[in-house]
Write a structure and sequence with these properties.
The structure holds two protein chains of two kinds. Chain A is mostly helical. Helix content of chain A is 80%, strand content 0%. Chain A has a domain of 111 residues: Up-down Bundle (Butyryl-CoA Dehydrogenase, subunit A, domain 3). About 3% of the residues of chain A have low confidence. In chain B, the strands form seven sheets. In chain B, strands 26, 27, 29, 35, 36, 37 and 39 form a seven-stranded antiparallel sheet that branches. In chain B, strands 28, 30, 31, 32, 33, 34 and 38 form a seven-stranded mixed sheet that branches. Chain B is 6% helix and 44% strand. Classes of the chains: A mainly alpha, B mainly beta.
Chain lengths: 171, 571
């Protein structure tokens, strides 16, 4: 009986401690980042990418999607810069093809995903993000195994896949 | 304004008299029509008789209707590019659902309630033959709201200009009604109950429960949300483009009903586009008009209109021909990069008549009869055996732009492969493509095939024995459709509710450069696909009948026609 009373008191005290140290608003929304990222193909990259952006802590899932589109933009720019650099030393059909594909990402997929997330039509955000991942894969495939853009293509593909998975959560 | 109406009337009459000749010179606001230098060689994928504008992105058909003897079709259109965005309601009219005249955009952002977008909606004919449109607008807060528009001038048969109600939005998500502001769109055609109230559905979801929210109104301006949705379903996600209409129970084929009709002779159909699955599904059931509740028949699984690429579809009652007509959107299976390069994305299917099969178990769809006016140079085969392993070329038609009807008679049922466990038909088609030999089948058509068969799209049947019955699988196999691997070439499939023991297996396929629309079992199973051959284009495309099974089948009928080019949006 004494043990039961002690256990109950202990339990009650612990309960009080837990309740009074309820997560602050920030911690709640970090949980949203984590729970959202858990439903994407790359949890770590997702969390890291989102947390790097100010405002992610208080964003809803749609807002997190919009942030990931910004990340996609940045990865696309990295790839485009690298392509231009490579083209200066030696243009090739594969590089030209990649330039075209990344142009499609920047001119087509990213604006589409932006408008889609903003206005509540997530299927077109998923569309744009999936296409961006595909374009990066096609660019990579164009070199038949000896790609100078592997790092950039992988980065593009990975963040695009995360973005598509976030869109999927809104369908 | 009064001074202008005689002039407008005169212009309208002028346009009518001169018909296509003048109207075809209409251009899109801010756009140019396709350059005449765009020959078929640098645009091999543009269709000859499917609905599409000269360029840019299209998606959902909007507000289709019939007014003063003309069919109107509006559609989601991006005037600025080949991806979804900047959406407006583009507008075309037609006398025959086949040839379309382009007009200026009818609805585009112009008031707060649609300043950020004019999304999908439907037309309703009010008493006195007055059409009105309800559509989803995106407001300054990026919330989805429902707006009303009506024609500026009812005596213009082309209904070129539309005015928006100053009372817009008429239906909106609020704190009070707790409607999710990013999941509230796509108003249907309204129907009138015996109590004189109009009812309309709006697509919605609450978490993952998809819903058809119901609103009622006496005057079409003041709308009140009903206490419960017309129908909802757990775990389905957002319901886009709902459609709700009556069909004749055990009625004559190809006869439709006005959307407001109800009674003992009628069943109701609720259709939704599932955001999550990217497919259009429908349920047949009973509408309790007094409670405004729809109860689907439990006995049937949820069916799809089309087992390929087909979305955002919508029906109208065509009071000219007393039929219900279905319009649907087919997106590209090519990469965005390819779409940007070719400068366009998206087409609509050939409009389909739709009615309830006499069994009451499913809807039948069939391309509208008017499309047959494009048929020329018929090729008819006498009945003949198609042995296992045979490939027969269909000559005498433009294989890239054709309409083919073929019927098969099957006999040697003992040779059918046994299917031990039920499998998803699309997966079955993927595992057992046209190249995989079978017992009975695969047999069917090779369309958009190159002479060396490096490229081909196979539309075929394969018959299984499953639980002591014959099970017919219909596939559209795109996996070898193009040497360009940057296309989505996923095969599609469905089972067809036909017993080949008692009836012939029929297949009709409409081929149009980059679209293949197939109808099995006289419209019981529909599969639409998009393909982008690199070799089998223009005059190089071929058409074959094939049988890659071990048993013979008899071709009881083959009729094929070249299809003339239709006049579509000034193409």
């Amino acid at each position: 009986m004494a043990n039961l009373k002690t256990t109950t008191t202990l339990f009650f005290v612990l309960f009080l401690i837990a309740m009074t140290s309820l997560p602050s608003i920030t911690l709640c929304d970090e949980n949203l980042i984590e729970s959202t990222c858990r439903k994407t193909p790359n949890f770590n990259l997702c969390v890291q990418s989102l947390k790097a952006f100010p405002g992610s802590a208080s964003a809803d899932v749609r807002g997190l999607g919009l942030i990931m589109v910004k990340v996609m933009q940045s990865k696309a720019n990295d790839a485009i810069n690298k392509i231009r650099e490579l083209q200066r030393s030696g243009p090739s059909p594969a590089l030209t093809s990649c330039a075209s594909k990344y142009n499609a990402i920047v001119v087509g997929d990213i604006p589409e995903a932006n408008e889609a997330f903003s206005k509540g039509m997530p299927k077109f955000a998923e569309n744009g993000a999936n296409d961006a991942a595909n374009e990066a894969t096609f660019c990579e495939n164009g070199f038949n195994g000896r790609s100078p853009l592997t790092q950039q293509n992988n980065a593009m593909r990975d963040v695009a896949a995360i973005t598509a998975a976030i869109a999927r959560q809104l369908l | 304004m009064a001074n202008l109406s005689p002039i407008i009337l005169l212009l309208a009459l002028f346009s009518l008299i001169y018909g296509n000749a003048i109207a075809s010179h209409h251009v899109y606001r801010n756009l140019q029509t396709q350059q005449s230098s765009d020959s078929s060689s640098n645009q091999p994928y543009r269709t000859a008789y499917h609905f599409q504008p000269p360029k840019n992105w299209i998606n959902d058909p909007n507000g289709p209707m019939r007014y003063k003897g003309l069919y109107h079709l509006f559609y989601q259109y991006n005037p600025k590019g080949s991806v979804w965005g900047n959406i407006v309601w583009a507008h075309s009219v037609s006398k025959d659902l086949v040839n379309w005249i382009p007009l200026d955009a009818a609805i585009f952002p112009s008031q707060p309630s649609d300043i950020n977008g004019c999304w999908s909606g439907s037309a309703t004919m009010l008493p006195g033959g007055k059409p009105v449109i309800l559509y989803t607008g995106i407001d300054p807060n990026n919330h989805q709201v429902q707006n009303l528009a009506f024609p500026k001038n009812l005596s213009d048969p082309f209904l070129r200009e539309w005015i928006k109600s100053p009372k817009n939005p008429l239906m909106a998500p609020t704190v009070a009604n707790k409607i999710n502001s990013t999941s509230f769109r796509d108003p249907t055609t309204a129907w009138k109950g015996k109590d004189g109230y109009w009812r309309v559905l709006i697509g919605n979801k609450v978490n993952s429960v998809g819903r058809a929210v119901l609103y009622k109104s006496k005057d079409f301006v003041n709308w009140v949300e009903a206490k419960q949705p017309l129908h909802s379903a757990q775990g389905t996600g957002m319901w886009e483009c709902p459609d709700f209409f009556p069909v004749l129970n055990n009625g004559p084929i190809n006869v439709g009903l006005d959307t407001s009709v109800d009674g003992d002779h009628v069943r109701h159909v609720l259709k939704v586009s599932l955001d999550d699955k990217k497919h259009d599904y429908y349920l047949i059931g009973t509408y309790d008009a007094s409670q405004d509740v729809f109860t689907p028949d439990n006995s049937q699984p949820v069916l799809r209109y089309d087992y390929g690429k087909y979305y955002a579809s919508k029906t109208i009652f065509d009071d000219g021909k007393n039929r219900r007509v279905l319009f649907g959107w087919v997106n590209e299976s090519s990469s965005q990069n390819d779409d940007i390069k070719k400068g366009w994305s998206g087409i609509h299917t050939i409009p389909r008549s739709i009615w309830l099969h006499k069994s009451g178990k499913q809807l039948i769809q069939w391309p509208v009869q008017e499309i047959e006016n494009l048929r020329v140079n018929p090729v008819n085969w006498p009945t003949r055996l198609l042995k296992g392993g045979e490939l027969l070329q269909v000559n005498g038609i433009t294989a890239v732009q054709a309409d083919v009807e073929i019927s098969f008679q099957v006999r040697e049922f003992q040779k059918a492969e046994v299917l031990k466990n039920w499998a998803d038909p699309q997966i079955l088609c993927g595992m057992k493509g046209a190249g995989v030999k079978g017992g009975i089948g695969p047999f069917g058509l090779l369309v958009l095939a190159s002479k060396d068969l490096q490229e081909s799209t196979a539309v075929f049947f394969r018959i299984f024995r499953y639980q002591n019955k014959n099970l017919v699988l219909m596939c559209s196999d795109q996996s070898r459709s193009s040497l360009n691997k940057e296309n989505d070439m996923t095969p599609f499939g469905t089972f067809v509710d036909v017993d080949p023991l008692h009836e012939n297996l029929s297949l009709r396929t409409l081929i149009d450069h980059s679209v293949v629309e197939s109808f099995g079992g006289e419209g019981k199973a529909c599969i639409t696909s998009r393909v982008y051959p690199t070799l089998a284009i223009n005059e190089k495309a071929q058409l074959y009948a094939f049988n890659n099974g071990t048993s013979s089948v008899r071709i009881t009928r083959l009729s094929a026609w070249s299809m003339k080019k239709a006049n579509i949006n000034g193409n």
